[in-house]
Amino acid sequence: MEIGKVPHDILQKIVFQKLKNFDEKVKVSPGIGEDCAILDIGEQFFVLSSDPITGTAKEIGRLAVYVSCNDIASCGVRPLGLLVTILLPPNSSENELDKIMTELAETATALNVSIIGGHTEVTDAVTRIVINTTAIGISDKNNVICSAGATAGDKIILTKTVAPEGTAIIAFEKEEELKKEFGDSFVKKAQSMMEKISVIEEGTTAGELGVSVVHAMHDITEGGLYGALWEIAEASNTGVVVYEENIPISEETKKICEFYNLNPYRLIASGNMIMTTSDPDLVLEKLKKKNIPAAIIGEIVVNPLKRLIYKNEKQDVETMSVLRAPKSDELYKLTR
């Protein structure tokens, strides 16, 4: 198998088929496009999600907090706590651990999320530092939104410019090379996208509107925008039509992807949230009030076989391509 997420067909065949629910309190369990487990604890839902950081060795403390908290936010829920596991290879220094803990603590504090437990270990099972975080949140039942709720006729909203995480990671990993090509200020601006990776505000804004307005939501990680759109359609058993010219993209992302011959729409993209909604004007208005840029990039359609990318809303067949299941993220092309 290629580096990255295990392919969806293998997940379905080998992983998901072996899993069973033994308690009616389990309301959402593992599935394509669903990043959170949801448990019924009476009058509220308990929401949990777990994620590792494996695609980079830079800024991993910050990323570890963001990615799991973003999963909770993609259910419309504000995260309240984190469990953190840190695996250090032999000969790791105290300074390395100190840097990671500083990043973890500062990022969690900025998000008002408590680090409530975890595990720290030196082991020869890893060759570089690996962090896994599990985030938790609690919510009223009518505010929880899943990936599987997309409905035909829904408009698809994307927050922020595409792929802020992938842009920032590459800008840190390839800093010197990019400075030679584009200059210091360009690289610093690209690196600053690391500060835009949280989607808690957009997620909780959707949660306030409720599932009657925002039918489905998914934060974008490995596989990029197109991968996340496919996952929402697969989870919801619908089709999807997306218009590439409607997708906001920053100059930094565009130039970095052109320089390394990467597809920005299939690049890891924490910091972006996808929402499907029957009332896009209301959602855009609420996001605007919180200074969260967003755009309508397509719509959900009935036919699950119709998953298409057009250049623009003219739907010219000559510019059409099929939206396929995500493969290895574009980021890994730089590490092979």
UniProtKB/TrEMBL annotation:
Keyword Transferase tagged: yes
Any Pfam family matching the protein: AIRS_C
InterPro entries: HypE (IPR011854), PurM-like_C_dom (IPR010918), PurM-like_C_sf (IPR036676), PurM-like_N (IPR016188), PurM-like_N_sf (IPR036921)
Any GO BP: protein maturation
Record SUPFAM superfamilies: PurM C-terminal domain-like, PurM N-terminal domain-like
Ranges of residues in domain PurM-like N-terminal: 33-138
One of the record's GO molecular function terms: kinase activity
Keywords annotated in UniProt: Kinase, Transferase
Record-annotated PurM-like C-terminal domain positions: 152-308
Sequence similarity: Belongs to the HypE family.
UniProt name for this protein: Thiamin-phosphate kinase
